[in-house]
Specification:
Elements (H helix, E strand, L loop, with lengths): L11 H13 L12 H8 L3 H13 L3 E3 L5 E3 L18 E2 L31 H13 L7 E4 L2 H12 L5 E6 L3 H9 L3 E8 L2 E2 L1 H7 L5 E4 L13 H12 L4 E6 L20 E6 L1 H4 L6 E5 L1 H13 L6 H12 L3 H21 L11 E5 L3 H10 L2 E2 L1 E2 L10 E5 L5 H22 L2
Parallel strand pairs: 3-13, 5-6, 5-8, 8-9, 9-10
Antiparallel strand pairs: 1-2, 4-11, 6-7, 10-11, 12-15, 14-15
Bound molecules: pyridoxal-5'-phosphate (PLP).
Pyridoxal-5'-phosphate binds next to helix 5 and helix 6.
Length: about 425
């Protein structure tokens, strides 16, 4: 077995360390199999129990996963800095990355007035908290306790860490944002897929998994990748379903005011454990690394208490910047433009008989019979789109197109090119 030459050590800790080095050095990639326990044990002249212990350590750290009869494999996006994925070739229109349109993000330089602050000053900017409370309350989210964290994923991680333990099961949308999925597995939690349709989580599917789950991570709008958003009726149904359950609810409002649709929460004051995390990444820019986290009192105390021990606080340079931009309500125009672009693509696809999803947000999700063949064929035609595989647990194949920069005129060409690829595929697969 080729990988064995990178693996060394005589103790479980050393063997696990050599696997981590191989991943960090790009010698072992996501999906690669580790050697069977007995074969590596013979190669390293250690007992099989030592190798098994090394694999358990790696599994606990979220580096590898036991994959049934396929053995132990390196996880997608293990929690180790590793070489980046291959880039989209030059000259290809890249619609694969989920980014907002740079041209629709606010000019930061105009508003940047950094001031020095020292230890012992207020933890968070009072004006930022007041504005965030106003926004949360407008959306029916209780806002008695609001913290400032470094983005949606940072908030999700902090809340999950404070309430869950390794091995706990977390209900998660399927398909689902890869970042959330990777984070859940890196925390040694077990993702439990719940199918979504255009209105969000499907209640009967959620009901099935709820008894075994300690937490639910949900995206009430701009669901990535499908664009799903809670309809009023669906939100009511889901709230009723969750009412009698003592489950931690974590809502990820990563798109915030550029989602293009109202926010419909599943939480209320009667719940014991919950958090709603609203990031500014899509509306003001991913590099700001700012999100507002509303939660119940206990979650708030734990998250903020832990935060002040490590990172201490989110820089007030960033907090003031968000206040300055929020004051002029710039994101509203961006939201309109994204909606136009999303709807233009959906319209062009529909006109060519291609079903697609994208009620809100920055992406359109298009079911296909053959994911990688479609991505390759689109590359040939000059379009970079994302294969759905990394987003899916049990849901069927699709590709994701980020619409944030796709003009309505380009949408016509893209739909034509995609139709030219998908229609023969459909004839071949008989659908
Ligand atoms: C559903 C979802 N949640 C969270 C994020 C990341 O948000 P943040 O940059 O605030 O961590 C993304 C990024 O695309 C996303 O799609």
């Amino acid at each position: 077995m080729l990988e064995q030459k990178y693996l060394s050590g005589s103790s479980a800790v050393n063997i696990a360390g050599s696997v981590e080095s191989a991943v960090a050095g790009g010698k072992l990639a996501a999906g690669d199999a580790l050697p069977p326990v007995r074969s590596l044990a013979a190669h390293l002249r250690v007992s099989p129990a030592t190798v098994a212990a090394a694999y358990r350590l790696l599994q606990d750290r979220g580096v590898v996963m036991a994959d049934g009869r396929r053995g132990t494999r390196v996880r997608p996006a293990p929690p180790i800095a590793a070489p980046a994925e291959t880039a989209i070739p030059e000259g290809v229109r890249d619609l694969s990355d989920g980014n907002p349109d740079l041209a629709l993000l606010p000019d930061l330089a105009k508003r940047l007035r950094p001031a020095q602050r020292v230890y012992g000053d207020e933890l968070n900017d009072p004006e930022l908290l007041a504005l965030a409370r106003e926004h949360f309350r407008e959306d029916g989210v209780p806002a008695d306790h609001v913290a400032v964290v470094s983005g949606a994923l940072d908030g999700i991680e902090r809340v999950l860490r404070e309430h869950l333990r390794a091995g706990d099961r977390v209900a998660i949308e399927d398909p689902c944002f890869t970042g959330a999925l990777d984070l859940v597995t890196a925390l040694s939690l077990v993702p439990v897929p719940v199918a979504v349709d255009d209105e969000g989580l499907i209640p009967s599917e959620l009901r099935r998994v709820l008894p075994s789950c300690k937490a639910l991570v949900v995206t009430p709008r701009a669901q990535n990748p499908t664009g799903a958003a809670h309809s009023p009726r669906r939100a009511r149904e889901l709230r009723a379903l969750l009412a009698s359950r003592d489950i931690l609810i974590v809502e990820d409002d990563h798109a915030g005011p550029v989602a293009g649709i109202e926010y419909r929460t599943l939480v209320d004051r009667s719940r014991e454990k919950w958090a709603v995390i609203r990031s500014v990444s899509k509306s003001l820019g991913p590099d700001l690394r700012v999100a507002l986290l509303a939660s119940d009192a206990r979650t708030h105390a734990r998250v903020e208490g832990r935060q002040t021990l490590g990172m201490r606080w989110v820089s007030h340079i960033l907090q003031r910047l968000v206040v300055a931009i929020w004051r002029d309500r710039a994101p509203l125009r961006a939201s309109r433009v994204y909606t136009e672009r999303r709807e233009a693509l959906l319209r062009e696809l529909r006109a060519r008989g291609i079903a697609a999803h994208g009620v809100s947000g920055l992406n359109v999700w298009i079911p296909v019979a053959e994911e990688s063949a479609t991505v390759q064929a689109m590359l040939q035609k000059g379009w970079g789109v994302k294969a759905g595989e990394r987003y899916r647990l049990a849901s069927p194949p699709a590709v994701r197109v980020t619409i944030s920069m796709l003009t309505p005129r380009e949408a016509v060409r893209l739909a034509e090119d995609l139709a030219g690829i998908l229609l023969p595929q459909r004839r071949r697969s008989g659908v």
